[in-house]
Description:
The structure is a single chain. The protein is built from 27 helices and 22 strands. It is α+β, with helices and mostly antiparallel strands and 887 residues long. Strands 1, 2, 3, 4, 5, 6, 7, 8, 9, 10 and 11 form an eleven-stranded mixed β-sheet that branches. It is elongated. About 1% of the residues have low confidence.
Amino acid sequence: MKSRFASVLKNLLYRNRVEQDLDDELRSYVEMAADESRGAGLPDNEARRAALIELGGVEQVREAVRDVRAGALVDQLRQDFFYAIRMLGRNRGLTAVAVTTLALGIGANTAIFSIVDTVVFRPLPYKDAGQLVKIWGSGSAEPIDNVSFPDFVDIRDQNDVFEQVAADDAAGFSLAPPGGPRQPIDGALVTGAWLSTLGVQPMLGRGFVADDERPGHDHVVLLTHAYWRRRLASDPNIVGQTLTTTDGAFTVIGVLPPNVLRYGGDFLKPLVTNEYPPGRGHRDLDVFARLKPGVTIAQARAQLETIGRRLEREYPATNTGRGFSVAPLDKYYTLTDRKANQGLMLMLGAVGLVLFIACANVANLLLARSLTRSRECVIRAALGAGRARLVRQMLVESVLLFLLGGSLGMLLARWSADSLLTLAITGGYVPERMTVAVDGRVLAFTLLVSLIAGVVFGLLPALQASKVDLSDGLKVSSMTGGFRRRRASRLLIVSELAISLVLLVGSGLMIRSFLRVQAVSGGIDPENLLQTISDAGRSHPEAVAFWRSALDRARQDPGVLWAAVTSRPPMQGARRQKFVIDGRRSPGPGEEPLAGDILVSEDYFRTMGIPLLKGRAFSDKDSEASTPVVIISQSLARRHFPDQDPLGKRLSLAERLPMSCCTAAGPVENVWREIVGVAADVRQGNLDEQPAATMYRPYSQIVEHDMFLMVRARSSSDATRLATHLQSQLLAVDSNKLWADVRPMQDVINGSDSIRLRRFVLILLGSFAGLAVLLAGVGTYGVMAYSVAERTREIGIRVALGATRSMVLNQVLSETMKLTLAGLVIGALAAQVLTRFISSMLFGVSSTDTVTYLGVSFVLTVVALLASYLPARRATQIDPLMALRQE
């Protein structure tokens, strides 16, 4: 080994000396053999010729010796590398086209992969993240739900499988800088073990201590790294400073490391136990835990089921039919965001198809160039190069070309990653404020893709170019070789057209689905309708007075036609509530019917443009002291009162009674409510979901703290003015409360999951499909131009024998149509399979929609014909005399 290593170093570092030694040895051998021939009586020139014949050729022997040297492969690769650089530099036009094509394909793949890698593949940024689990409530009402504070305490105190259990809840403040505009910031209220459960230490300052959870001592905050960098310019002296908010002054005690809050946020604040709503029906906590060493998910799930059954027996009013589920923390995000993750993986697959088309185009360029290099390969073979040596030489050039394209693609990915990330965040596919790192992992991905693609798509041209026949090799080309190259090129073009059709079909289906969703009314009239939200933060009587003052203030504006408040406007969903119908058999535990539960004020239905089909709307007489009433939706009436008039019937709902002494809710009791109206159905969740059964209750009888103020303007100009000035007018109700997120209802609808998820897929899939069609068109042009150039002699003979220009034109175009038809057929069959992956995103259109397939096929046919028209025109202008003279 030592001797061989020394030989390798000698052959690589002292190559000129080794080559000189070889030349001297060969020269000595030839001279000795010639001397022997001269001694046998041969003349000098014949003796030398006999010596060379006996040797078998100087160059052949030289190559054979080089092949068996230690380190020969490394030396040959070095030679191939520098030769490849010279060849690419000599063919600058081809190199520029190939590198640009590859940069588009590889760059798009790199950019999408950087997002998918950050969201889906990267581990959570926590210590021993594999031990972290997510705990959530589950039941018939909500398959995936948050946990109430009392249930959280019971889980924390009654388990022996978790080292620690922590919880958080969303929260928000309004910064009130002196003389400056208000700035809303959002974050989370967290329990004391939040940081230690995750295994996170602040980057600056300290974490929370037990004293921070005491009432009056909780005005401290931990800032996220993103907020510290974005709003505070990475101030290293921020610890100890005070943030003045509408809820008081808060002292900054530390700054978190980057990306701790996976789903964004600005701050963490201690959750004070006696200020948090204690009812078991108030389920707003996100709960997670760290498993003890050796504990499995199955064991944790079994214990949570035991705790759930115990709480169900002890608190039947709130916990009947409810339990708890657990999953690894990273898998939980995949579970809850399955549609978003599916969209990201769909984009990764689509951009992979674009890369295939780009690589196929480059392979076609290399195939076309292999024809011009046939004589070179023949000469190399005649000088002793074997086929493996020729293939390796071609593959080095191909890989170098793909690496250059990958390098440029990496730069394009860096440039476009932020734009794609913004688009993905807007589409709801990526958590807000998440940063995407184009780092070593992404660089390794790009390098791997470039290497694999360079070998795979360079192998066919290399095999074609290296297949030489020395007996016929010095001719320009052979019909067999030309036929093989044409067949390979046509196969690649058919593949490109088929893939383009798949992408275009997917894009077309998404466009039609997007238009169908946008055409859905949702059950309301969004024109000139505005939405804003605020937090009353008061006891029940004061909260009612607060919202009544807000309504009065809004109605005083001459541009306001109607105003109302609601706990859940359309597109915001609705918490489902169990109910019992008076006079019917009491259902068993877990069998109660469910309906969405929404609190609204008088004029709500007129404000939203929701028709009232029967009965009356709420009025200011529906107060806490009056008879409890309810309005039901048409779907609820149709399902539970199919042959009856529901007006006057009663429903029993489990309600938390309001308490006047504090902000928390009181005990839960069953309240009988009389049905006084039936409203038209509203798509409360997403536009692509069927309207669900819904109940509306008067907000004055049981008000929530967070409510939405809905305002209908008299005209579009009034709506524009109110969107800008409504918040400042409402501050007169309470200067300490921020009226956040004042925006038109149409913007809310456009930002709903049903539209924004599809918009993201539509934009990217449409972009990739357009790029694929462009590349397929360029590839078709290249193949047909190469075909015409290769058949110049044949076309010249046809013209000499009487073929007209139209006949030549039709022949070239008919050849294109055959390739296009084959691509369309194969693509249509592939699309039948692949479009099933987007079937869950389709609305009102089938994955086998005939109109889409016909329209896409027409577009591809036109592109292919346009791409082949210029080469066809060039074929009609071939002069038969010039063609035969060149041959």
